[in-house]
Write a structure and sequence with these properties.
Elements: H1 2-6, H2 10-13, H3 15-23, H4 38-52, H5 54-85, H6 95-107, H7 114-118, H8 129-137, H9 143-168, H10 181-184, H11 188-192, H12 195-216, H13 221-237, H14 239-255, H15 260-283, H16 286-289, H17 306-313, H18 328-349, H19 356-368
Length: about 375
Amino acid sequence: MDKAWERLPPSCANAETHVQTLTCANLTENPVSLGLSPDSRILHTLRNVGQLATIAQMNQTAPKAFTLWWVAVVAFTLICLWPIWSTRFPPLQDYPQHLLQAQLLASTWGEPSEYVRNFEIRLEPTNATFYVVTALLSKLVSIEISGKLAISLYVALVAYLVVKLRGCASGDGPPWGALLLFPLMFNQQYFLGNMNYCYALPLVVLALLDYEELAAQPLTAWRCARQALWQLALFVTHVFAFLAFFLLAVVMSISYRRHAVHIRRTAVAVAVGVVLLCIGIVTVGPTTIVPPATDNPLPAWNWKPVTESLGFGLYMFTGMRWHDGVDAAAVLSWILLAACVATAAFGRSEGTAPGPRPRRSLALFCVAA
């Protein structure tokens, strides 16, 4: 009731005062001194009372919209889980290989097996989430079921992100646009079976949302520990996604340059990122890249050529294809995204809320993507 009252225009919010004015003794005062004639005051009061009648309708419509939104979230989650559990092996290209690697890892935690006798099994601290989760679950259920549960974790992370965005929405209604994350989660990397990369997509956004919350609220031990856990999860899941998060976090901290309090709060998160970055450099050192050998006694970094590294960063414009050239549809989608972001940024800089046209443009881009 209070939130609905706050959404009413100022004239409507003062309607109760006008009603009390009509019933008080000051009706006997000279209406000219009040700036209104008796008839005009009565009409103005009746109009505001009529607007107050919409409060009940607003309170009835909002719960229905949120209920429908929650039903949509559950329905989309179940739809996304169906192709995972409707077949014995989900149709992912590298999934059987990753499942075997998880089985090899699980074999090292129990009694000696043929895997341990024939393979040297070593778990790296990065890109390891899928293997660890699947191996741990395989102690409770079969390796096939544990693999499906590990893939379902990706769906659960996207669903949690959608629910998290509902809490961050500034509007009065549910964030219907967040539901587009469900169909967009089935990207090319998903069908290639790169589950650690898929985990990293919602983790980056969730870590950034927590980073914003850390900057906006007073520092506590729990908030600092929670941000450290998000970063650790990203580091273990996908190191490149962690680097992307770290760069975005630094850019966000620079944007807080006029707010010393925000900078002090985010300095803790940046420090955690620096520590993890140093751990990664030490862990994935030159001896790991190129082990010492007779023809190469000294360990050295095996850096790729600059042109190849640049091409790797531009794969987003080639449809993630290796040597087929630029993909016009992918470039057009990124251009549309840049136009939508620029339009929203320009509207915010002008101090106006985004109107229906930017929202339609954003929806059109999502459909095109």
